[in-house]
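HUMAN: Mind sharing a backbone?

ASSISTANT:
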Amino acid sequence: MAEKSAPSGPGEHQRSFSGRAAANQANLADSLAALADMAYESAGLTDLLTRVAELAVQAIPGADGAGLTLLEVDRADLIVKSEAFVRAIDDIQYGIGEGPCISAAATGQTKRSGELGIDPRWPLFGPRASALGVHSALSLPLVVTTGILGAMNVYAHAPDSFDNHSQNCGETFAISAALAVQNAQIIDQTTRFVGQLETGLKGRGLIDQAVGILRRRLGVSAGEALGQLKEMSDSQEIPLVAAASSVLKDAVRRRQADDSTPSVPDGRG
């Protein structure tokens, strides 16, 4: 007769719980360390935000996937995800303008749900998310001293996947994540500004060259030449820089044509 195993006692349960808690804390610590290391990475903004979303899944117990939404004044919201199903859920949320991430970003407060399908806070979003097999959500605002940068969405397929411990881990992670996102955003904005400045300087140089060509060709002042260039821009419905480029290309074609024309002897020997 097979010997029955003794039922596990409270001590074994406590050891199991302690082991899970230690593993969770280790995962959170590793994720926070990875966030700190991101300050030395040279990846683009989208790649960095995606990495933050991936680290959120590692840091927050119960998470199956995460997404991150960055709000910016001068361009469309930037949305990334760690798993494909997150994109489908967030598309629903932003498509109807309702959901935990939108609420978290608007209020600056964490939003948690273990039964999205029947959550009265999001009567349109919740049932649709539930129909796709996503029942739990934890949305964390990304808050810095200057305001709210956006929000991080953490999802799970099973109901009631996020407890108080999960929320505490998420909120701890979100503090560091917000700083990492802010740094990445500043670098991206600076890079874009430098690019725009370089483009502007290049455009100014083209305009100045075109004005010089028109002055010599037409025998007019700099102001009159610039007026001619603006008229060309308006009549052709093209930017001033494009009109200047057209003048320069025409000048090159004329020079090439002159160089290719054979000289005619003057008859003097």
Residues 1-6 have pLDDT under 50 and may be disordered. The beta strands are 65-70, 78-81, 111-113, 136-144, 147-156. The first strand starts at residue 65 and ends at 70.
